[in-house]
Design a protein that fits this description.
The chain has 229 residues and is mostly helical. The protein has seven helices and no strands. It has helices spanning 2-31, 40-49, 51-79, 84-118, 124-163, 170-190, 196-219. α4 (84-118) packs antiparallel against α5 (124-163) and α6 (170-190) runs antiparallel to α7. It is elongated, with a radius of gyration of 20 Å.
């Protein structure tokens, strides 16, 4: 009985952690600064002014992704790391998180630092260099973000494939995860290039909803047989 109680308590703690990560993701997403700049000089000044909010938002995403990796390691242990789908999911999520963290560093720290460096420069050569560096950072981010999201979407499919085989509400949660994973992958691969930024933001929001659904599942004792508890 003590072991069952301990497992139930750990499962509820994990549910709370997923719920907090979901709320943090949605809050950071809503706080993400938007840009109205049209010229390079306006972009530089806007990025330089928003250095603190960029650091807070992107740093918050990095911390949240690190916390989610811990949460999914614990979830994978609960579902059974010997399952192939679970092992693939955990690997894919960690790879995807690494790519997204690299993107967050470029977008939230490197780009604003470059903006501060060149914002007050009226030299044509310096502005040309700034444009080149911004194009480089933007190009790298345009690959890191969708590839990272594709890896994480694959992870959602892997965990959902394991969850859907369980009793109780696990079938519904697993089906939701499978649908979410497929929608994310199709949207990222087949979506119009002009809509890619909006699709990425919508994908992050959908992932946050899935974390909340996982939290609800983990809070349901009826969905976890005694053998698993």
């Amino acid at each position: 009985m003590a072991q069952v109680f301990s497992s139930d308590r750990e499962r509820r703690g994990l549910a709370g952690a997923f719920a907090l990560c979901s709320l943090a993701t949605l809050t950071l997403l809503a706080s993400h600064p938007s840009s109205s700049a049209r010229t390079l000089v306006e972009v530089l000044k806007e990025e330089a002014r928003g250095v603190w909010i960029n650091g807070v938002v992107h740093g918050g995403f990095i911390i949240t992704l690190a916390a989610l990796m811990v949460c999914f390691i614990l979830l994978s242990r609960l579902l059974g790391l010997r399952r192939v789908s679970v092992a693939i999911a955990l690997t894919a999520f960690c790879v995807g998180s690494g790519l997204l963290i690299a993107s967050m560093i470029l977008d939230g720290f490197v780009t604003p630092a470059l903006a501060i460096r060149f914002a007050d420069s009226g030299n044509a050569d310096n502005l040309t260099m700034a444009r080149t560096l911004f194009i480089l950072c933007g190009t790298v981010i345009s690959f890191l973000m969708p590839i990272g999201m594709l890896f994480q979407s694959t992870a959602i499919l892997g965990w959902s494939a394991a969850i859907v085989k369980g009793p109780g509400m696990r079938r519904g949660v697993g089906a939701f995860g499978l649908a979410a994973g497929v929608i994310l992958i199709i949207g990222l691969l087949a979506g119009p290039p002009a809509l890619k930024p909006h699709l990425l933001l919508a994908g992050i929001a959908l992932q946050a909803i899935w974390y909340l659904v996982l939290a609800a599942l983990l809070s349901s004792a009826a969905s976890w047989p005694v053998a698993e508890r």
